[in-house]
Design brief:
By secondary structure, this protein is α+β, with helices and mostly antiparallel strands. Among the domains are: about 90 residues, Lambda Exonuclease, Chain A, CATH 3.90.320; about 80 residues, OB fold (Dihydrolipoamide Acetyltransferase, E2P), CATH 2.40.50. Helices cover about 40% and strands about 25% of the residues. The strands form three sheets. A five-stranded mixed beta sheet has the order 1-2-3-6-7. The longest helix is centred in the middle third of the chain and has 26 residues. The structure holds iron/sulfur cluster (SF4). Iron/sulfur cluster binds next to α2, α9 and α10.
Amino acid sequence: MVGPEQSLPVEPLDTISPSQYSWIKQCSLRSLWSRTTDALLPTSPKARVGSVIHRVVEKVSRGELDPQDEQVFQDAWDSEVERAEKRMKSSWLSRRFVPLSGSVPTLRVMYHQTRHRAIELHQAKRNSTGTGSARTEVQVKSREGKVSGRVDKAIDTRNGVILQDYKSGSIFSSAGPNGGNLKERYKSQMKLYASLYHASYGVWPVCLQLVALGGEVRKVNYTVREGVDLLDEARRLLENINQRVNDVQEGRAQTPVLADPDTEACSVCNFRPACQSYWRARGGGSSEWPPDLRGHVRETEVDSEDRLLLRLLTSPDQCKKVVHGIEPNMVRGEDAHDLVKDSWVEVYNLYQKSEEVYKATKYTVGYFQ
Ligand code: SF4
């Protein structure tokens, strides 16, 4: 672990948004740390492109960018990619993924999909001033303001309002008929938007739709009861988290009261190196948990390309494991050449080749003491 988990701060939340709701529900500690602390494992370069898309589309929504002018749009895109790469270069965890054109092979496809979506939004915005048929970036909130967010598009039709939210990644959790099953967290998000729209404008939307970057549209079914219940649950969740944060800050409880370790939540968490709850929960580990190892060094070898091979005795299960292919830029702490027998090491995001043998991946990170 990079330090005692109590040393990472947690702060109460002022509000909760529909997009945060499912994340916070899955593990409060992950969401709280992500607000106060830099990630301790690499963020996927695709997520960086997701932020680029978000910023470009936001500029279109605010009327600052005309996506129909290809050169203007290209320049805005390039400038956002450059900005993202500059930030990535300043972090030892992310610099390995620069340039994004090298680490995200679909970058050009995503550019075209984003421009297509931006043109649609731009046209919807122009129509909205003329006919009132569509609004973009619609602010919605609960009566007391504790649950709030912005839905990408509200389309006024003769039958009522359709809410649409755009997603830059896949909207499906698994393959199946008609593309697959929609991600549960996106479904909850849309139902919360419906409830917040009602709280803000006094009417329930007649239809909720998720729109993938490629243009695919999927309906999210909901009932008013579900919307009301979810909003109540989001309010209670916020109160409950803030109560626990308060207990931690006042010394009545320890940080782990905020953690909900589970294979799904921890697999996509960039705070595993700081989280003892995670290590306690996985115990000896199983294939369901992320392929991370920690323990004491038994032997090291460095090959002619400066890549490290580690032989470990893992903790707590005292198993012999071999990790190979660790590059110098993947390591924080002790220099690989200076590691001595019994040094404590933690290695995250590996690829398990066999029961005993692991291999470094482009996401691997080592914390050596
Ligand atoms: S590692 Fe797991 S338990 Fe710990 S903060 Fe992350 S998601 Fe929560």
